[in-house]
What we know:
Order of helices and strands: HHHH
Radius of gyration: 24 Å
Keywords: Cell inner membrane, Cell membrane, Membrane, Transmembrane, Transmembrane helix, Transport
Protein name: TRAP transporter small permease protein
Strand content: under 5%
Subunit structure: The complex comprises the extracytoplasmic solute receptor protein and the two transmembrane proteins.
Distance between the termini: 45 Å
Number of domains: 1
Organism: Roseibium aggregatum
Pfam families: DctQ
Structural class: mainly alpha
Oligomer: single chain
Amino acid sequence: MPLPPERAPVPDQAExxxxxxxxxxxxxxxxxxxxxxxxxxxxxxxxxMAVLVVEIFLRYVFNSPTIWxxxxxxxxxxxxxxxxxxxxxxxxxxxxxVLIYDVVSRRARRVLDVxxxxxxxxxCLFFAWASWLMVKKAMFRPDGSFFLETSGSxxxxxxxxxxxxxxxxxxxxxxxxxxxLTVNYLRRPLRTGGDSDA
Length: 198
């Protein structure tokens, strides 16, 4: 009786096709700092979860809900999501369509990297300007006096104004990051081995 053909051993875990990198080398020191700072925002998500657990306990066990838990968790989550865009730029892990990018030569990819970074820089500058318009309304009354926009809730925290200020800071930083990427993509030497991928 013939033996069944041997099957190739199946590895316990599939190995990644591309080695993971902490940050994109072309993002420079700013990219390195952004990836380090991301740990702080990751802790913010854990704090938001802990606040929700405390709120559930206080509400359903002691029938004494807080007035600050909802706004605090919303603020922490929103700040983390805003920072997430900057984090993805530094790591080169943002969503993109690579239908054309994957089939062109390395030289063409370099051109596309520069063009994409320049287009993203322009978009970020527009969003930074729009953020500044929001921040002006959130920080100053019509008469020009300083006043942070509040939530209007029972706690009435300045979270809306702080979120808009943070968004402006992130958009300016993201613009600088795309400028650094554009310059570094222009300066990056082509790899040896020809123009086409192996």
